[in-house]
Batch of 3 targets.
Target 1
Amino acid sequence: MVGTGPGSKEHITPAACKALESSDVIVGYKTYLDLIPDLLSGKEVVSSAMMQEVDRCRRAVELAEQGKQVSLVCGGDPGIYAMAGLVFEIVIEKKSSIRVNIVPGLAALNSCAARLGAPLMHDFAAISLSDLLTPWELIEKRLHAAASADFVIVIYNPKSKKRTKQLLRAREIILKYQKPDTPVGIVTAATRDNEKVEVTTLDRLPEAEVNMQSTVIVGNSTSFAWQNYLITPRGYHHKYSLGE
Amino acid sequence: MVGTGPGSKEHITPAACKALESSDVIVGYKTYLDLIPDLLSGKEVVSSAMMQEVDRCRRAVELAEQGKQVSLVCGGDPGIYAMAGLVFEIVIEKKSSIRVNIVPGLAALNSCAARLGAPLMHDFAAISLSDLLTPWELIEKRLHAAASADFVIVIYNPKSKKRTKQLLRAREIILKYQKPDTPVGIVTAATRDNEKVEVTTLDRLPEAEVNMQSTVIVGNSTSFAWQNYLITPRGYHHKYSLGE
């Protein structure tokens, strides 16, 4: 399982390139494969559309069972809200004896944090607003828990064509614990040509542009906005004075 | 600010190498710089010991103010529990006009998750047990919040020479909400020669080897151990049947 990061070649590790290079077959979601044409040359390529994730993982396992060296390409990092778990569940269910290696890549977490400056200097909670596989009541419970304990909150899957109200509801919940001027960073399509970085507030979040390619980071009570950055200090008092 | 990942060259991105290559001066913690000798050749190098972080960041800012292109090397990712925030705070305090770019790298989060298979397939909370800059009461509050809302919990700074009881206390708190057989993954020195990966349970955690180079990942109520992996399913019911 190969994490190819946010999309541009300069953020793909040598380890990931080596894994692809040493493979017989490369399996992946068409949109991610289209970003790395050079790394596919000479390989058997199996590409498919987004919602065929289970099929794609199953196919990759089947090919590996035939003795082939297979790379299953994941955008970002296979290990963060991605397909690694699905592959293991299939391997376990099939009692397969193939070996699974995870090659980590830069997740949305890493790329978006870098674009926002320093939002994740302290404890943070990653919460997905996708209620496809998780009861919405549990997602709300997690939002309450994270906001009440003053975590920085990284919101994955904030919006999709079908899901547009969840982000507003998440904001309502967080506002029970955090002030309206709490900074919120939104990074869309990190490192790609259409990248957009915006820093706004919880109050003004409904006006911001958020889509399927966005990651939303809500600051904690100590976070502040500076220029187009979102900075979260590392602690709650300065142990080392910054002044001379 | 350049993230060099977990330590081995194969996990350093081309973007990070380019940033170092284009710099006049490279500043960093001696132990991380020793891992990348090739990337330092021909550069002015300023290295220092661990606890001189503020000085190191201040020095990097000063050199940049002299017009030099400076790379401040961070192990892992500058944006996750690292030095990015400190640099911004210094730049803001000095009213400096230097430009700060963050080059993301693989954080302990990415590398450790990869070694454990698939622990972070669902919502997770990252909590640091270091009470140097944060009141211990708040850390406990966060542990309660994360465990009660069934987050996977990534524990940073689980132990140090001076701090040995915090991990045991964290375990006590989590045990109020999770079963004793909840799987716990411990990755020490990920990707380095002395790497160690262990999967145990909350119950048996006190027996495990944990040190300053370790990251501890506590599963949620659906996580399970398989071989030497820690798998967290993506949701709370299977939307797509895995069977044929």
Target 2
Amino acid sequence: MDKFAKRMNSMEKTAGIVKKLFGAMNDPDLISFGGGAPAREALPVDIVREISNEVIRTDKRGIEALQYGPVVGIKDLREVVVKDLLEPKGVKAKAENIVITGGGMEAINLLCQLFIDPDDIILVESPSFVHSVEVFEMFQARCIPVDMDEDGMVTEDLEEKIKKYKPKMVYVIPTFQNPTGITLSQERRKKIAELGSRYDTIILEDDPYRDIRYSGNDLLPIKAFDETGHTILANSFSKIFSAGSRLGYIYANDEITDKLFDAKSATNSHTAMLPQILCAEFFKRGYYPAHHEMICSLYRERRDVMLECIDKYFPEGTKRTTPDGGLFVWVELPGIIDTTELLAESVSNPDVKVAFVAGEGFYAEGGGKGRNCMRISFGGVEPDKIRTGAKRLGELICSKLK
Amino acid sequence: MDKFAKRMNSMEKTAGIVKKLFGAMNDPDLISFGGGAPAREALPVDIVREISNEVIRTDKRGIEALQYGPVVGIKDLREVVVKDLLEPKGVKAKAENIVITGGGMEAINLLCQLFIDPDDIILVESPSFVHSVEVFEMFQARCIPVDMDEDGMVTEDLEEKIKKYKPKMVYVIPTFQNPTGITLSQERRKKIAELGSRYDTIILEDDPYRDIRYSGNDLLPIKAFDETGHTILANSFSKIFSAGSRLGYIYANDEITDKLFDAKSATNSHTAMLPQILCAEFFKRGYYPAHHEMICSLYRERRDVMLECIDKYFPEGTKRTTPDGGLFVWVELPGIIDTTELLAESVSNPDVKVAFVAGEGFYAEGGGKGRNCMRISFGGVEPDKIRTGAKRLGELICSKLK
């Protein structure tokens, strides 16, 4: 028995890395710079309590919350996406082109259902978000890396690889990228949309961090430059509302939206109703702007403390990014340190007890790339603990160089 | 662009039928015997309101509800499945072998992720639930029908087809089957578990209706007879708690549970937290037994009224099943009537305005089978409306025979 489908083998290695990611989030003994969960303090518990009391109070809304709902999501939430999230970013959409998904990860999954046959090629940033790569591998795609620099995906390399590999899809996290924290420049955003149109390739723009910006200027999404429907925007409510609600959305053209109905129906019929209703009301009742300001200021402080501590405690020769938002900073250590080994020691050594994510797993190309890199998440840790954790980790690293 | 993946073409025809199913649920002008949604009156709105007030009141539970959670579901709900749902049915499971899913449909989807490569064969009942067949087709499986009689899937035919086709999986809805309402006999349950073991074939037991029984004796699940782990039990909370919460579960052996972690993680990270918590508390606080009794008595009346009305208003020569539970009765009309045409008239004729589901779509084999059959759902319609609707529909059918 247990003749598992081929896709389960294709994803095996990445799945192991993702399993560790989930594991790293929950050990209470650790100071965890692993995971990418929002801060406890950034979760609108009081607001949700208030809304939920009112929503379930009437029988009509109560029944709506507990009965089957629309495959592509409730109208209220699709309208919120259009008015509160896309319009302010220069993207004019119709609610009929929004599909509500079970989080941002399900958005990626559904788009793979639509487009990816085994051996199709997906171009990804190098490094890219390992959990998305896991999804691509489950669909038996081949992931080919595209170079990145401090302005994000290098469009010259992208164009060359589009010509060479004729990919089905280009996967980009343009804003405060996971894992690097790097933001794709405005000019390149425009260019990538154009490349999608010119070479008839889907640009999957995954943008879950864009609304938690702490410095610098807001940029238009790639989708804002798309004139042919080749760019598909996927996003998540996990960072701005609640991760546990598992809510995300896709904005795409009519033909794709229509196919998404089928894929969503055959995945889980529709997204859970109560989270959708609570989230829609969160925006419609005007709670978002103040909440948004609160979480940005919370995360800004944590980012500042983290960057300061890395500069202070990590050894000379350390390189790091300067994220203008999001939850991650990417650190490159002096070459001889293997971060996978470092991590094993760092979580088990009773004097350290600090977790992070080793860099190697974020490189789809393998071959030891990123071996001396680490993704450090600052969002979920209080400033005092950031100081303690970064100091301990920095001292451990320094001890390796002696 | 829009070179959709092959799977999207494979599922196209069935997807069209499923789209109509979803459509049929929501037209307020119709008396709808279509859809399979639970009755409004069967949704525990008051109980959920009470629980949710308490659950989100404390910050700890509030944060749990809004933060990322475990990939395979919360411990509380997995334990509820073991103690409240499986143990009383003669199935001894460990909570570690339960995976919480986004409804019963996602359970089917995840098991296809695990096991189905393109062109793999799945044996299904003839007729079978069209929405599941849609999922199988999205995974590019070939569905081969197995005969049914009044005791469910005919095990002689099943064994023959297992030998002939060497299927990856056998899909069975053993209790109050969708669409027929037929229940698989105890003897055949045992036999099917044995065939799975003997021929090294997965038996996917999909059992969402089992707990809403109105007459006859409770039977053991197929899984209770499984000695080798070849039977996998999938179930849903949609009929006994809430459909909109999108909660279901899979009970499988260790190896499969481990792979389900990967498939679930790459589908949508995990199931929404608040619905899981509310559902777990619904059972843990002891609300289920009284609620269960209430919904069974509600549906029992509706079934009785529906069967009585079919016998009274439908023409001579009509055959129907006698479901001991669930939501559906299967009707076979005198041969010359095409139910797809009948449906078109029945929903549009202002003197009728009654919906049902035409039988043809439930036959994976096609070829016009079931053309004179219909699935009639009695669960969501009040008794008075059942009487009105069945009378109008019966009169329309009789008018065709004149």
Target 3
Amino acid sequence: MERIPVAIIAATGSVGQRFVQLLDGHPWFEVVALTGSDGRVGQSYAETHWVLTDPMPEYARNLPVVPSTPEAANAPIVFSALPSKYATEIEANFARAGVGVFTNAGAYRRDPTVPILVPEVNAEQLALLPTQRKEKGWPGFIITNPNCTSMGMTVALKALDDAFGVRRAFSVSLQAISGAGYPGVASLDILDNVIPFIDGEEEKVEWEPRKMIGKVVDGTLQLANFQLSVHTNRVAVSDGHTVCLSVEFDREPSPAEAVEVLADYQAPESARDLPFTPRPVIFVHPDQDRPQPRLDRMTGKGMTTVVGRVRPDPLFHLKMVVLSHNTIRGAAGGSIYNAEVCVREGLIK
Amino acid sequence: MERIPVAIIAATGSVGQRFVQLLDGHPWFEVVALTGSDGRVGQSYAETHWVLTDPMPEYARNLPVVPSTPEAANAPIVFSALPSKYATEIEANFARAGVGVFTNAGAYRRDPTVPILVPEVNAEQLALLPTQRKEKGWPGFIITNPNCTSMGMTVALKALDDAFGVRRAFSVSLQAISGAGYPGVASLDILDNVIPFIDGEEEKVEWEPRKMIGKVVDGTLQLANFQLSVHTNRVAVSDGHTVCLSVEFDREPSPAEAVEVLADYQAPESARDLPFTPRPVIFVHPDQDRPQPRLDRMTGKGMTTVVGRVRPDPLFHLKMVVLSHNTIRGAAGGSIYNAEVCVREGLIK
Amino acid sequence: MERIPVAIIAATGSVGQRFVQLLDGHPWFEVVALTGSDGRVGQSYAETHWVLTDPMPEYARNLPVVPSTPEAANAPIVFSALPSKYATEIEANFARAGVGVFTNAGAYRRDPTVPILVPEVNAEQLALLPTQRKEKGWPGFIITNPNCTSMGMTVALKALDDAFGVRRAFSVSLQAISGAGYPGVASLDILDNVIPFIDGEEEKVEWEPRKMIGKVVDGTLQLANFQLSVHTNRVAVSDGHTVCLSVEFDREPSPAEAVEVLADYQAPESARDLPFTPRPVIFVHPDQDRPQPRLDRMTGKGMTTVVGRVRPDPLFHLKMVVLSHNTIRGAAGGSIYNAEVCVREGLIK
Amino acid sequence: MERIPVAIIAATGSVGQRFVQLLDGHPWFEVVALTGSDGRVGQSYAETHWVLTDPMPEYARNLPVVPSTPEAANAPIVFSALPSKYATEIEANFARAGVGVFTNAGAYRRDPTVPILVPEVNAEQLALLPTQRKEKGWPGFIITNPNCTSMGMTVALKALDDAFGVRRAFSVSLQAISGAGYPGVASLDILDNVIPFIDGEEEKVEWEPRKMIGKVVDGTLQLANFQLSVHTNRVAVSDGHTVCLSVEFDREPSPAEAVEVLADYQAPESARDLPFTPRPVIFVHPDQDRPQPRLDRMTGKGMTTVVGRVRPDPLFHLKMVVLSHNTIRGAAGGSIYNAEVCVREGLIK
């Protein structure tokens, strides 16, 4: 089978590098172009200041950095690691040129016609694409990832919502420094410290899960009905966002019932058995002191949501801890999985 | 003025060392004895493996380690850093011998006749002592500290409860490694990691604030009426416990009203102007990314509760962040402050 | 091909766990027994407090913990993760029973008949085994690993010694916490800190490389002639020992000559193309700020020695930085490679 | 006594903030002006993003940020925290205007007429000032600090050189992140990591101690005769540079002799009993695992050089470990001490 050409937009930053890494040897996709800002165009990608722990893949070393335009990228699928402030315009250029854009940027997450896609949660929100095309007049389309902190908790909430109806939830995150990009958090700010503030993050995490778990009715997205309260913190962890979650349900489950529902949760048919499908979708860790980011973030190659400590909550119904790899599941890996679903669904020309 | 002789029980461990340090040069108290376990008795205290960042005070270097008995300690006030499993018996021995015991151990916190004393919160719970003496038949008495995580949030909740009536609160802690003693947390367990579990901690923190903010009616303590849900986490911070708090009130305050109440909160008359009185009792940090443990834990010489980020909560009424120094305010410094109140109240012979 | 049965002695500790992990799916060896201390015997290995970041392999979960005796282990090859104080006697028991013992313990490193084997450096020191068998009267044998800090620098020194003759070297280590086992270093001792002392370590690292690079003449080992001065430090790194090295040679090379020699260094014939042969033996990193433990420790699946910053030294001839994964190359992986060489050389019955 | 007006040049950066902090309440100096870059001029200093763990002193909150000119600063003494690239010109402007400039910048360290002043080492190098004034035609003068890594080791080497004659030394540093300023080192670069490279640092540290321990003969500075080889590393420590040192002498001392010489070392007469004189100049820590940055950096209010582990070296004569607080002793505190010496010596009008 011939692989589909794909390009990575803004490939030189830390999220861009994750795309470069995770697409190395992908069975369906072949990276044919890496784009960068004007100052980088014309350089070899090998000159990039590489910040990941595995070495730069060979294929990427030999590619030049090209401009972030549909012509230069020349691929029916692009993965975007653009900062949000540039994403609005550049990603629209690609969609207008007929390209399927899978982005990690937040620019379009609030757009009611753009799905925040997490295949195991809401593959059916691809039903928004006809609306998007019609409203925007784009032959291509844009699909976004959620914020990396929304990611894991939304997978857990979806499984629980299906079974018991989520009414409201408190959520406190302990987020990894890689979520702030590179150079991101200064070492003097985080060594022997916690920063109990991440600009704009709480607003995102209180809203995005409602969109993701919402329903598309007649081409229009309706937010899920539950309410969230979110505190976000930065801690001295390299990768892996930990979330403490207290949840109230329509119908109170026992911890054992919730564990069973979480452990048995399956992605919708269209999102199963793809190269980046998490295996399992949710892993419920049996130990009382897990999940922990250093030990559990790579579960399912970094794509699995890990849940632990499901126990009664004195105010709501259940407490639990949710862990998700923020730069794999919550960024590049998530976008790749999204693209795989779209290919299977015949949405890529 | 002649200083009152005091002894430190279990002076060689990490909390004992904090007592040794904080009592150096205390205007009212003179350390006359340091006790230790059988294996240490007879050694010079100078041989202790000292783990604090300031050097061992001179006065302590020259004291011998003596047994943990009232005879060897020979002082009307003792500060106890005993592990809970030894505290039940040994602390009772001291109280039975007429000594005022100020302890950091958890052994007696659940005893309805033993106050969990935080002077700026509940100095009036000293009214329990006559009941304690009568029921136990002790000429002396025992007064405990709260758990170090309960400490800061209880001070904040008390100020808010007085003004607006606390109904319920969610609380998620990010706790320093010093809270686990020495050697305590293995470095391999916390470097680049979070441990979302501390054995027995959540139960304590869900209950102790209700006792502390309770009322003594006719010599009997009545728990405060609010309910708490607590998640506890260990993070790579040396000192200073950070707590994310969402609170629901009887009467909803604006963030500005809550800030005013917190900033203006005063200790009861009997707890003011003592050597270890926190100055201020509560500091409300104006910056949006504070408090942070590394930057704010030493506020008020480590005795002040620091609050920040008071803001609306979508589910309850207000969110905020509370920081308290766990080994000063939440351990040794707290006990010393307790003893000062008792001296002023004439409870020490 | 049928796999050779092997046992892991002291399989429940942190080094034992690395053996369990690295032998999972080994093409030649099949783990048939896991031994532990008396208190663990009879338990399932699944009950072990697992400290590695990858999950416990399935094969191990189903094995019982058996006593550390040749009868219970019942395998011609054993990998020993025993603490040195137990190793002297227990490892001799195995050798006496005809078993080939590959050990990470230091007990026999000073024994002139026991090779400290690093195959790419001194596979020919297997010539000591006839002497060992004769002197000890053992039908089996013992082969040790070096200290984990000696490991990487010895590989680099060997390559350079062959080409230019090493005369003397200064070496300062920055060692990972995993080198102290589990629980090992207390977190309070290493957060925001350096410990410039590791008990007994400097003596080992000043001597072992001389034995490893020594020659076997008529069945007797002659130490290499160079002299070393070593400072050892513990730093807040999980895995990977970094060594700063200044070397004086018989014949001064340019940095470029040294780089070429290092990069071209090959293991002796008998140590090539084995499952655990490092690929490459030495990687010379081209960047000016490398090697770094977090980025480079997994080079060659953790078996490769990474060298960087080869540059002139104002006192000796060359300065450089050497990195080696202390629990893979410097412990379990090293022993497995040693066993592979012995199988190929026909030393296992 | 009236205090001398002083200004801090580039007061808003991390070194500038240390000056602001350490000059709070200084008995001789009163800060009358804080300068900053053009973008900051006119703002209140209270708007500075403060990065130190103690709060911003009150006096500074009320000062405006003024331009870095002699007119705006209007003080006979200025402390400069300028980056080196701006220091060359701006510091000369001040000296030309008759001001005594005490700088942390490296711009003039190589100038043969500018002393790298460490009062306890080389107060007599003030004898260079007449030469400086003559050659430059400045009514004022410039005096620099050494690089923060040179600092502690030079104090130790000076004491040893006086007694035994230093011939050569190997030095490997483990440097704190605060040495790189703010934001400085990215947290992703140093968490669970070591960076074995600091740009330009090794060259400085190999040369500066020779200048500092040199002699002024007829107004000309002669470098000390010894040779140094230096490796520099960045580690995950907030403050405090640790240096492993191996030293060869003209006359070999025993470790005990060296300890005695170090512990007894006194500053020259003119540098004693000043407000910032380190007390003691050198502290020789008796424990085998010290000095450690977290435990020992604040010795003598951060001004003392702490030495430990003095022991025989197999290649040279002695090994030891030296610790110095890089932002107090090695930066702002050092400059203040320098200014105090100049005031006492009558060099300030």
